[in-house]
Amino acid sequence: MTKKANMGKIKRSTDDMIDDAIAQQNDWQENRRTYTRGFLKSLNMFARPSAKKVESQSEAKIEVKEARNNKTGVKAYWFPIMCALFVIFMVIWLVFIGVHREPRVLAVPNIPEPTVQQIKKYETPSFDIVRIQHDGSIVVAGRWKANTNVSVLVNNKVVSTQRTDENGEFVYAPTTPFAAGNYTFALLGTDPEVKSDDKVFVYVSEHGYKNSLSLLMTKDGSTLLQGPYLLKDGDLTVSKIDYLDSGRMIVTGTALPRLRVSMILNHKYLGFARVSDYRNFGLGADIGDLEPGKEYELIVRLHDGAGRTVANIIHKFTAPEMTGDDDTFYTVRRGDCLWVIARNFMRRGILFSIIAERNNIENPDLIFPKQKLQIPVIK
After folding, report:
1. Residue 342 is part of a domain; what is its CATH number?
2. Whose CA is closest to 228, among 127, 305, 313?
3. What is the 8-class DSSP label of residue 120?
């Protein structure tokens, strides 16, 4: 009996607390409405609303008041309930998640050890220096893998095998001088066996190292490593000048191998040609009609790998009578090919088959030094 009495007492006390809270809220709302009406009245003290408008406003106020009085339950206390739920959520998060969560582990990616990659130029053996010495001997310096054997090839024959140091550098310096002539140097590395992409062309002049040269030959072109300091008579010669009735001039001669020869007629640049390994060159250009009996000045220049003029020949001549079709002949020199001959004499190398047919040559790839060719002239 005592237990039931206590329970009833607790229930009645809770109802009283709720009634008191509702009464206080009603009083607070009534005070707010009174304050608002006073404030609005002070703002509208100069307004003179019509009786109809006043009556409609009064009716609206009564409707709002009745609607507020009719709010009960969740609608009347939505804001306190939302605040309470937010506080409960924060307490649960702090107790069960924020405080007792496991420590956060930062995953660091596995970074491999740094590796040293070889420079691209060392993927194959490479040249640094190829120099012709005073006594005619040749010094070769280059690079390959560290502590590895590398062979020096001269005209495709192994002449020496050197060992690179810890920096991958090696030097080949024979004491025996090289005889005058042309030489092509290449490198062959081991472990594994790799041949150099680049080659070096060396010309040892019979006049000594000052007239010799070396050229680094790559897929992008040639670079002069050592050029001639002093040229002798005979290092640049013009052996023949042909003037065809097609208005084309062909100049042939000899010069230092692998260099460039250019031609100028009366201050007009006509073009350039490369000198072969056998020191021969031929250059053809269209110059138009020359006046027979008039003097002309022809300049043939020899350029080193850097484009500088190292020698020139000035040839002054009187324009001859034009050569007929059947009177044009060319003597084949070592290193010539029909393609180059046709380009010089006939403007286009693809016309080499016409020369082969005129001279009854069965194999156009096979011509011989000192072979005399008749050149058809195409206007």
Report:
1. 3.10.350.10
2. 305
3. G
Residue in the block written with tokens 């009786």 = 51
**Tokens 């269209």, located at residue:** 286
Q: Of 208, 207, 191, 188, which Cα lies nearest the Cα of 199?
A: 188
Residue 164 contacts residue 235 (beta carbons within 8 Å)? no
Q: Do 253 and 344 belong together in one domain?
A: yes
Classified as helix, coil or strand, 61 is helix
Are residues 198 and 249 both part of a single domain? no
Both 173 and 196 in a single domain?
yes
302 located within any domain: no
Strand partners, 250: 242, 284
User: Number of folded domains in the chain?
Assistant: 2
pLDDT tens-place string over residues 13-41? 666 777 777 777 777 778 778 877 776 67
**Domain range holding 188?**
120-226
Identify the DSSP state of 323. B
SS3 297: strand
Based on the domain organization, do 206 and 254 belong to the same domain? no
Neighbours of 158 (CB within 10 A): 11
Q: Are residues 369 and 246 part of one domain?
A: yes
| Mean pLDDT computed over every residue of the chain | 77
Considering the domain boundaries, does residue 83 fall inside one? no
Q: What is the share, in percent, of the chain residues with pLDDT greater than 70? A: 75
pLDDT surpasses 90 at 326: no
Report the C-alpha gap between 132 and 206 in whole angstroms: 13
pTM of the model: 0.49
